[in-house]
Amino acid sequence: MNKLIKPLLVFAFLGIFSACKDDEPPLPDNLAAFESTAQGFEGEQVEVKVVLSRAAEAATPISVSLTPTNLTYGTEFTTEPAATNNALALTVPAGATGVSFKILKKTGVLLDGDESIQFKIASVASPVLIGANTETKLSFKAIISDGTALQLNGLVGTESGASAGNSVFLDLSANTQIPAARDSWDLGFNSGAEFRVIINNTNVASAIEVNKNDINAVTAADLDITKLGLGQGAGTFALFDDVTGDLTKTVIKEVSATDADNKVYVINRAGGTGAVLPADQLYKVRVLRKGTGYTLQYAKLTETTFKTLDVTKDASFNFQFASLVKGTAVSVEPAKGRWDIVWGYSIYFTGTTPYAFSDLVFLNKYAGVTAAEVLTSTSTYDAFAESNLATITFSADRDVIGSKWRATTGTVGVKTDRFYLIKDSSGNVYKLRFISFHASDSGERGKPKLEYKLVKKAA
User: Where does the record locate the signal sequence feature (predicted)?
Assistant: First the structure.
C-alpha cells in the first residue's frame, strides 16, 4: 500500500507545482515607441529616441521610415546611421531599453523654419511589438509643445536606481530629455558676470581650502583628508556648494583678479557614503582669472607638478564644465535656454544634516525658470486651466519641487495629492505631474514617468 501512496503523492505535488507555474501572469507586451510625438531642432544636430517598455531579451531590429517635407536627404540633412530608400535600420542591443539615431544639418545650409521630417516605426522584430507613439515629427525650428508623457532615463548601466548615474535635463517646450553622467565632471565655471566655480554636488564631491597659493607645494600633510568625508551622517555644509544654487556660497571662493589671493583646494571628487578616496585619487586645484575666462591649475594630491586648462565663458550656457580625470572640458548641461528642470541624485539635507538624495528635481533658476506646487485639494490636475493662474505665486527657488513629489517611507510612491506648474524662460506655463518612480507605484527606480501639458503659451 505504501509503495502506491508515495508515487501518488509525488504526482500530486508535481501537478500542483505545474499548475502554480501556469497560473503566473505572463509579462506584458514589450512595446517600442518614440519617446515623444513631436520634437524641435535647434543647432547642427539632434537625437531621436525609440524606447522599449522593458529591456530587450535579445538584439532587436527596428525599421524606421522617414518622410522629409521641404528637405532633401543628403542635400540639407543626413542621418546617423545612414538611411537607405528613406528608411533607417536600427537595432536595440540585448539588455538595452531603446536605441537612438541622429539627424545632422549639412554645413552652411540655411533653412526657412517650415522644414520637417516625419518618422514612423515601420516594423519591429518579434517578440517586441509596436507601441502607441508610432510616429514623431521633427521640425527644423523651435517648437512649443502642447505636452506629452515621458519616462526619464536616469540609468547609465546596471547601477541601482536609487543611485542613478545620470542627471536628466528636461526641456518641456521641445519634448526633449538630455542625460548627463554625474561622474563625467568635477568643476563648473560660471559663464555669468561673476568669476565663480562650482564643485559637483551631484557626485557628492567635497572640498577643503588650503591656505597656500603654490599648488605644487600642497601635500596630504596640509590637511586632515578624513574631514572630506560626506554623507551617511558625515561632513558639514561647509564642504559642498549651496544646494539652492546661491553662487555667493560656493566652497571655492570667488576667483580674484589678484592671483596671489586664489588659494588651493583639495577635492574628494565622489562621496556620499562618508568615505574618502585614497590620497593618490584626491585632486588639488587652483583657479585664476585669464581675461574674461579662467585658468585651472590641477594635479593629484600626491603629484608635485600641476597641469593647466583654460576655460572660456560662453553666455549661452550657465556653466562650462571640466573633468579632472580627463583633464579636458566636457559637455554636461544643455544651453541655458534649452532646459527647464533637472532630475537626479545630489547632496541635499535632512533638517540640519547633509544627506545624499535620489530623485531630486531642481529648476534652471539661472535662466529664470520658476515653479509652483499645487495641491489637488485646491484644483485637480485635469481641471487646472489658464484661468486658475491668477491665484498662483511662482517661486524662483531652485528646489521648489525638490523631493516633495515622492515618498520613500510609509506609502512609497509618487504623491498623488499634488502637481506642479513650471514657467519656462520664455514664459510658457506647463502643468506637470509624476506618474511613477518605484516598484511600489508600478514604476522603475531610476526611470521616473511623468506627464505635462501646456497651460499658457507665452505671448
Answer: 1-21
